[in-house]
Amino acid sequence: MKRREFIEKTAASTALLSLGLSLSSFETNDIKHLTILHTNDVHSHIDPFPADDPRNANKGGVSRRAALIETIRKENPNVLLLDAGDIFQGTPYFNYYGGELEFKLMSMMKYDASTIGNHDFDNGLDGLYAQMPHATFEFINSNYDFKNTVMNGLVKPYKIFNKNGIKVGVFGLGIELDGLVDKKMYKETVYNNPVEVAQDMTQLLKKDEKCDLVICLSHLGYNYRDDESKICDLKLAELTQDIDLIIGGHTHTFLDKPTIVKNKAGENVLVNQVGCYGINLGRIDFYFDKNKAHTNQGKSIIV
Amino acid sequence: MVKLKKYNGFLKLFVIFLTLFFIFSCSQKNYNLTKIEGKQLPITEKGNETPQIEKFIKPYRDHINKDLDSVLAYCPETLDKSTGKWQTTIGNLMADVCLEKGNVVFKAREKKNIDLCLLNHGGIRAILPKGNVTTRTAFEIMPFENSLIVVALNGNQILDIASYIIKEKKPQPLSGMTFTIAKDNTAKNILIQGKPVDTNKTYYVVTNDYLANGGDNMNFFLKATDKFDLNYKIRNVLIDYFKEVDTIPVKNDVRITVE
User: Fold this and answer.
1) Residue B21 falls within a domain, yes or no?
2) Which residue of A89, A109, B170, B178 could cross-link B121, Cys pair, CB 3.0 to 4.6 Å?
3) What is the pTM of this model?
């Protein structure tokens, strides 16, 4: 009996040992592939544009976006699906249902997170609050303080996603509401300086939490040519460090490809935005390597 | 028994060692980012649809379409904001309707009357086509959420309104006010509700919230001595009006005369 027990345990530990060795040897040469998919300023555009639309004929549509996302998920299950705000407002779907269908469809497409845009306040804080039960994804914003509002506790300042061993830290930045959104809509929401908040967030996510990747979901806008003093994504990228990717919104900027900006530490930051109305889906693929021989060569950016 | 205990202790240590080794070997080196590829993927009609999503949207879409396409009124001819130098049929209609419907609310709340209405030409987003008028028509003309605001201005700002219209050279929707553009490009014969403008008097001007905040450089609205939010969306003003009338009137009356 004792002998039998001994043999079983030895066998088990040997198995564990060999498993451990094989795992660790496998991991040192492992290349991990993470796909970030993103939208911004979809503005309740659930149906594609009609065929007679002068500008965007037959473009967009949630049903097609869902199919494209599904195809990509089949190719690489390691997907993070994000939105940079302004989910609400723009078609009668919003006027009739207050954002219910938008949230339900995003949940069906398995969005992981969204930040909050100025138009997401269009039915007031109460209007946003009312739709929260329809969203299975996270709302992330780091510079709005909702403490004295109904939204208290429903919006996370950041979230760390563990995607197949890759730690992805996501935080969110919203635009200044004063002058843009009626006070009666945002009530006691407090806007904090996005650059300062970004510095705190990157310290937390990169230095303390040691995330492999830090993403900022921003609704600040890509840039403002007529107002140099206004904070925007390009400026945010320059003024901060340890952000790998800024996914932007608000300005409805159509870019041919993501912009590369040098940050405060001289490192490359990717800034992307995909226009509006669900016409495009942004796709950024990140490849991670544990093999030192590869990593010494530095990262290559193909856009 | 003693022997077994010994083995267990050894095994326990061994497992702890393995676990620590594992954790250590995993955490000693983070993953390094080696390659990034970025691109934009267009969503076009070439893409497949998702039957499950389509099925989910359908009842929502059907309900909206049924509501949007129900006929509210009839329009005998197309009202278009691009036909007319200083006033247009659709602009006249919108300004008149906003004044009339806004005044019902304003009078009930403030016991005062609105004197005039000024909107912006750019705010009319579609034509009012000949034929059946539906809720969808109202959504097309007014897709934004702007609502009516009554602004109290003195007579000097009324003069500014006239100068603004002349300077901008656009048929801004105007109701309750008429004037003449003189040969020297200044405004004269400015009448409010048929009476000459009095620079000492306070006038109540109904407009939308965007313009009331100085939008489209309508800076005279920023000099308001008082403001009243009617909490009445312009789209709803149109819908309510369409429900009331049978046939949409074609308002060709001249509000701004050129000398």
Assistant:
1) no
2) B170
3) 0.79
